[in-house]
Design brief:
The protein is 0% helix and 50% strand. It is mostly beta strands.
């Protein structure tokens, strides 16, 4: 059974940094697309960043230049390095995977697998 498990969330002050990890298991081959999605309290889920198996990345405008997504296909692990964090980055961050399609081929909410989420809280 495929599992995605996030870690690395926590509480930081504005301007600080965090690194999120998403460990996956039971994939027989690396998913085409892996993504980070966040949901703030009272807000809809929004895509933060995604990365295809060939390394092609995209970012939300709100995090461009501050966040970096990467993946280790050999370890089936996804990362999100976050710098210059802002209070508006406060949210639950989810790892998601689309096993058979490139990122953006379908809406995020249709992705095949999701983690349970990890809380990121940024105080001013």
């Amino acid at each position: 059974q495929v599992q995605l498990v996030e870690s690395g969330g926590g509480s930081v002050q504005a301007g600080g940094s965090l690194r999120l990890s998403c460990a996956t298991s039971a994939f027989t081959a690396s998913p085409y697309c892996m993504a980070w999605v966040r949901q703030g309290q009272g807000k809809e889920r929004e895509g933060v960043a995604d990365i295809d198996s060939d390394g092609y990345t995209t970012y939300a405008d709100s995090v461009q230049g501050r966040f970096t997504i990467s993946r280790d296909n050999a370890k089936n692990t996804l990362y999100l390095q976050m710098h210059s964090l802002k209070p508006e980055d406060t949210a639950i961050y989810y790892c998601a995977a689309d096993r058979w399609r490139r990122c953006g081929a379908r809406p995020i909410y249709e992705y095949d697998y999701w983690g349970q989420g990890t809380q990121v809280t940024v105080s001013s």
